[in-house]
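In the current project phase, the collection of sequences with tokenised folds has grown. A representative record is quoted in full directly below:
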Amino acid sequence: MSTPAELFTIGQLASRTGVSARTIRFWSDAGLVPPAARSGSGYRLYDAEAVARIDLVRTLRELGLGLDVVQAVLSRASTVAEVAAAHVTVLDAQIRTLRLRRAVLSTVARNGHTIEETLIMHKLARLSAQERQRIIDDFVDGVFAGTDPTSPAMGIARGMRQLPVELPDDPAPEQVNAWVELAELVASEDFRQRARAMVLAAQTQPRPSTQAQAPDQAAADDQAVFAQAGQAAAGGIAPGSPEGQAVLDRIVPPGTPAAQRARLLEQLETFTDARVERYWQLLAVVNGQPVPPPVVPAAEWLIAALRANVR
């Protein structure tokens, strides 16, 4: 046991604390462990308080705190509890970043991306929530610019903006991959122009429907229509074949005027785009929601069948 008046050289202090003399000298130069006195020949001498300070500095440094933060704790500018709370926040952010990196690498390992694609994926995946939202907002703002605020289309715009505040702490590789694909999709000028054209068309044209009934009933019937067309597409029935004609006749009655058929074909062509459907699917994956079933294959089959019939 030492007395309060007992003084130690750096070598003795290193022996008592297990910290190297070189490190103690560095901490002392930084003002973290000041000497209590000097020997007659000018060597630094330390008292028992230095032992306690070294233990605290070592602990805080092992926790990853910088020297400036350690100095604030030792000077009582910040309490240990305050520093610990702040450091937990920093560690949480670091953990999220590491998990995102792991997810990106898992996707790369599984899909065999090139170096350039890997760099892009990593850059996009590590964006902050605000930066990710800005990318989507810029896309939606451009697509819906000038749209009547009371238009039903604005409800679609709100839905297209929905992103989670943060990707999950432990995102699945498919979520990271979906976000990267989504960001690349909205960056496509061709896609932006196509989505914009659909929005403008929606303000002057009704949504495509094979029915002339109340909206709720028409929507239900349209689901049945796309179910029939989807089954035909999945079954490999050629739209222009006799079998395809029989399916079309169940969807659009044979007596339907040619002008009405042509109008339905135009509407379907205007509002059918696999990339738009992919946007909604990717948004669902990123948000951890069920992916809506694809409708475009059925719509494309119906478009082909109507084209064959019009000819």
Observations:
- Residues 210-220 have pLDDT under 50 and may be disordered.
